[in-house]
Specification:
Length: 296
């Protein structure tokens, strides 16, 4: 973790949500599986007239630096600290976004180290699983595709495509890395309660990411939300990426039922993916309680 992190975005004093006109509270930089540097993300956000941005890399806050904070502040962009944590709930891989944490919090810093170690161990397991299926995998070459300590399934998928062992990223996920497949290793991740605890102890708001992406029945999803609330979770994404009005209604209903605040984000990873473009985020329905009310 960079030493200058200690000076980054103090959630207690930053006037984050003065005038939230256009928000994006879920996107990725090249510190996880996105393609842009954090500074490039900020510049793109400014071009798209985003007023409030959170960079939510998988299991790392390496995007946050003094340089980034100064750039955003000079341009009038409110930067909210963020991270998308991998965890497990009932043997499923669930993503919990943390927003507005104090990145100087010792427990949170330790959690980031633990997640990085978990990712490395999981990389070994994914490698072994793919080799067990007969793929030729050079772990060092996969690691080279990722930022240090950030190896993940997208990097294995890219490797399989580049070495012509899979025809496309989609095929790699569909056949070997996606949910329930041999390369979908979850054992290394902490439980849901632990991940939520890391966020809340650092003063942040825990948010269930893209609730419909887990392809659970509504009954299962309600059970997840009940456990999430019991663990101290306070919000869920009601708008995620390009979304039709029907799922937005379903998610707004769930948020109301569980008294959860609502967040919204694109889940942007790279330009050219119209279903997840930075800042292309529908407004939250009026009946939702916006997540920023929890910290403004
Ligand atoms: P990991 O953090 O290693 O578990 O990898 C999860 C990431 O893989 C997600 O955040 C997506 O960016 C990516 N991903 C998941 N499913 C797919 C898919 N079917 N096609 C392409 N990318 C995917
Ligand atoms: Mn991702
Ligand atoms: Mn996710
Ligand atoms: Mn994401």
């Amino acid at each position: 973790m960079p030493p200058d992190l200690c000076t980054v975005v103090d959630p207690k004093t930053a006037p984050h949500m003065s005038a939230p006109r256009k928000i994006d509270f879920h996107c990725h930089s090249h510190f996880s599986d996105g393609s842009l540097a954090p500074e490039e993300l900020v510049r793109l956000a400014l071009q798209r007239e985003i007023t409030h941005l959170s960079i939510t890399d998988h299991d790392t806050v390496a995007a946050y630096s003094r340089t980034l904070e100064v750039l955003a502040a000079n341009e009038g962009l409110s930067l909210i600290t963020g991270c998308e944590l991998s965890c497990q709930w009932q043997r499923r891989n669930i993503h919990i976004v943390g927003l507005n944490m104090d990145l100087r919090h010792a427990g949170y810093r330790q959690a980031m180290q633990q997640q990085s170690q978990a990712r490395l161990g999981r990389g070994d397991s994914i490698c072994a699983a793919l080799q067990g299926l007969g793929f030729d995998v050079n772990l060092a070459a996969v690691q080279d595709l990722a930022a240090p300590g950030m190896i993940g399934r997208p990097h294995f998928a890219q490797y399989l495509v580049e070495t012509q062992q899979m025809p496309s990223l989609a095929a790699a996920f569909k056949h070997v890395l996606g949910s329930g497949k041999a390369g979908d290793i979850k054992a290394n991740w902490p439980g849901l309660e632990t991940a939520v605890g890391w966020i809340t102890q650092a003063g942040g708001v825990a948010v269930v990411a893209h609730p419909l992406k887990y392809k659970m029945t509504l009954t299962k999803l309600r059970s997840l939300l009940a456990d999430f609330v019991a663990a101290g979770g306070q919000a869920m994404e009601v708008v995620t990426g390009h979304q039709d009005s029907s799922p937005t209604r379903t998610l707004a209903d769930l948020a109301q039922r569980f008294d959860l605040h609502a967040s919204a984000g694109s889940d942007f990873h790279r330009p050219g993916q119209p279903w997840a473009e930075l800042g292309h985020v529908q407004p939250l329905p009026d009946r939702c309680q916006p997540v920023w009310e929890l910290w403004s």
